[in-house]
Amino acid sequence: MAKRSGLRWFFAFLFFIIGLVAYMDRSNIAVVATPMMKDFGMDKVQFGFLNSLFSLGYAASQIPAGLLSEKFGARFIVTFALIWWSAFTMLTAAARSYGLLGAVRFLFGIGEGPMYPGNAVFNTYWFSKKEKGRASSALLAGSYFGPVIGPAITVGIFQAFGWQAAFYTFGIVGIIIAIIWLILGRNKPEDHPKISKEELEYILKERSVSKEVKKAAPWKQLLKNVRFWIFGLTYFVTIYIVTIYLVWLPTYLQEARHLTLAKSGLSASLPWLAIFITVMSGGAISDKLLSKGKSRMVARGGLAIGGLVAFAITMFLASRAESTTMSVLWLTLSLGSLGFPVVTSWAVANDLGKEFAGSVSGWMNMWGNIGAFLSPLVCGWLAQTIGWNAALLINIIPIIVTAILWFGVRPDHPLFKDQNDSATLVKNA
């Protein structure tokens, strides 16, 4: 039926492409880590710091990006972000000193930061309450499909033209996507000239926001809310772990498992294929459970907790595996398990924040990227100090703590009373 498909799902696909480009841009540096470290004379800690600078810039932009997305809408914010980060992707290849390279990566992170808060605001206006999981899956799935195909493409470009060419190529692609989004995108479905009457009526009837909010989110009240902090902490740990794979997995496979650059690129893509699958399926599973009458604690929180427990088990097996094949298998399953807490977190940000989903998601993603800032440094230092296997095994501890903390998120209870009084926090929320 027209109301069940149409323009909103086209934009979900377009966000899939945007996420794909974003993570290909971000993951390129991990694939060419070895030649870059050689050219710049970097050790693991110095290389890890480059990735941390990216995450620091990314984290710093989250709350401002959420506020700006709520004020100006996703069309402007996402276009701006695409052009900004694509330019700094290309400048990564142009840098000629370690200091300049660090500055470029920090500014690259600032530019990519608005992508997710902008998407959260877009989803609030374009999708119904029961479609938020699948809507969140689109951008996330693209993000995690990027590292699936990115390593092979990057290795091919690197071998043919040098590592700098990979950054120039992907930067140009990003600018093309920005132009497409600017031409086709709109902040709200009621502003789009091509939307059908049936689809518009369905969205307006079923979405969680009934009017545009002019006032800013009540941050003073939010910061006094314990659940608000717990929610940020759960995402901090989740993205801390995901970033280890993004930054260090190719290097781990080359150093600890003695794979060549080409083989490590292929093996490093398999865990990202796994998380792509779980992100795509996780949103649909969560929405399906909701449609069957399950609580959000079951549909969102239960899925997240299950993924975290599965990660702990498979990471333990990966650290104990003797063969490279089994190590890659367990690492694939462990990263795949994290797809469930990742996608449900973004759905919960919409559930908790409603009209202020940009602010709530910006807060969550800020903490996630503080974790991403620390992750390359801590993991690089641990790998040099206690070895790769121990550095991986130790990650089980924060994951188990995070699984327990999810019971404190309480996704069944929005942070605000209702959509007509969003600035009023639920007591003891």
Q: Your description of this structure?
A:
- With 429 residues, this protein is an all-alpha fold.
- The chain has one domain (2-409): MFS general substrate transporter like domains (Growth Hormone, Chain: A), CATH 1.20.1250.
- It is built from 18 helices and no strands.
- It has helices spanning 7-31, 33-40, 44-72, 74-94, 98-112, 115-126, 132-161, 163-184, 197-206, 219-222, 226-255, 261-291, 296-320, 324-337, 339-353, 357-386, 388-393, 396-409.
- The protein is globular and about 55 Å long.
- It starts with 6 loop residues before the first helix and ends in a 20-residue tail after the last helix.
- The model is unreliable at 418-423 (pLDDT under 50).
The low-confidence runs, each spanning 5 or more residues with pLDDT under 50, are 418-423
Here the CATH topology equals Growth Hormone, Chain: A
Shape: globular
CATH top level? Mainly Alpha
Head-to-tail CA distance between termini: 38 Å
Query: Roughly what is the average pLDDT, rounded to an integer?
Result: 85
Give the total of domains. Answer: 1
Radius of gyration: 21 Å
Strand content: under 5%
Order of helices and strands: HHHHHHHHHHHHHHHHHH
Instruction: List how many beta strands DSSP finds.
Output: 0
User: Treating each run of at least 4 consecutive H or I residues as one helix, how many helices?
Assistant: 18
What's the CATH architecture name?
Up-down Bundle
Describe the largest sheet.
none
Helix content: over 70%
Can you tell me the CATH superfamily? MFS general substrate transporter like domains
> Given the helix and strand composition, which structural class is it?
mainly alpha
